[in-house]
Amino acid sequence: MNQRENFGSRAAVIMAMAGSAIGLGNIWRFPYILGEYGGAAFILLYIAASLLVALPIFFAESVIGRRSRSNAYGALQKLAPGTRWRWAGILTILSPLLILSYYSVVGGWSVQYLFKSLSFDFTSAAPEAVSGFFSSFISSTWQPILSHTVFIALVAGIVLGGVKKGIEKFSNIAMPVLFVLILVLIVYSLTLPGSSKGVSYLLKPDFSKLNADAFAAALGQAFFSLSLGVGTILTYSSYVKKEENLIVSGIGTAASDLVFAIMAAFAVIPAVFAAGIEPGAGPGLVFETLPFIFNKMAGAAPVVSSIISIVFFVAILAAALTSAISMLEVGVAFLTEEKGFKRVPATLLLAFFTWLVGILCSLSFGPMSGVKILGDTFFDFLDHLCSNWLMPAGGLVFTLFVGWKMSKASVRDELTNGGRCNAVSYKFFYYLIRFVAPVGIVAVSLTNLLL
Ligand code: TRP
What we know:
Elements: H1 10-21, H2 24-36, H3 40-68, H4 72-79, H5 88-118, H6 121-124, H7 127-139, H8 142-161, H9 164-191, H10 196-203, H11 212-225, H12 232-237, H13 246-275, H14 285-300, H15 302-338, H16 343-363, H17 378-405, H18 408-416, H19 423-450
């Protein structure tokens, strides 16, 4: 066996995990999902789902990863040889590829918006023109497919060329920049006339807007945002040193992910109200709102606004790429380590597969918008399938494995580093892993299925 590499420090662990976690899920997905399910009440539900279900699953994956020191597919086999647990490995290969298919379409939108920023489309156009950008772009056939192709090519190129280290270093700069820019956008959004309705939408919970779907959506968003249930965190944890405190790095990752999502909501939703956009407008929400913000800002300071929009989309693209690489890499690692593939054909094959499926997702906003699967467009169907079913299923397997199959002594050993830390919090989280998280997942899935 090769000597496995380790992350050098606690900061490096949190940075790498946060790099996978923070992405389009926070900036694109969270604001529109919360807009669909009614604002503040949904945020509370989301925080509850993150703490009670997602965080315990994060720890379950961390325990399996560090204990087995192995990839997602091999891990369960190694810890429970010859049992059926290995079938869960299949999930961990398929789901990230399906997610990448539609993630790449949205990544493509960011590419397109970067080009639009570079040609000053948002800052120099008339306000009426800007609001129509998204709908005309998205309903066209070729442009979104072309952008999706560029994004997939970037992801495949990075996975192939091994510039992964470079892009990760780059993203370590881009993330703090993104953080600062979102702060700037929040401040600016709050000054827009009409934005105060958005603020009360985010702060005053209206529980009557929550329906049965909202629980599944909150849980699904928590899974998506923390990259859970598909073995990403498991794989990253297999590189974490024995002395590292798993509970502390998990909480650090989850907290930064949550902060980013809530900040994005405060940047976007007040501007949604100021622009008169419907908060439940769906996957295009952020992309309809941002041009409005940049265009308004340009009225006061054109150069500053142009610079902010360019840097903003570069940073989003970096965040999206670090997440997307982690999805493709799971499949490539499986084909090369377990199936004897060479790296180049494995990468090209999987990139081609995700590209094809992604084309269907892209078309479902335009020419194929009438094609529905179980009432959803192809894009929404894939997203719901992955976020509300496949990821929770993976999460369920991981919690059951750690809570009921692994010996208590080894779980304790991992979470407390052989009894040296976390004696109290370990008991609490072990209880969540054994009971609360699995019951939560099953209850939410049943509600979703039956209502
Ligand atoms: N969490 C990332 C985001 O918020 C997306 C992501 C990366 C992901 N790896 C994943 C989602 C694995 C699910 C599974 O953008």
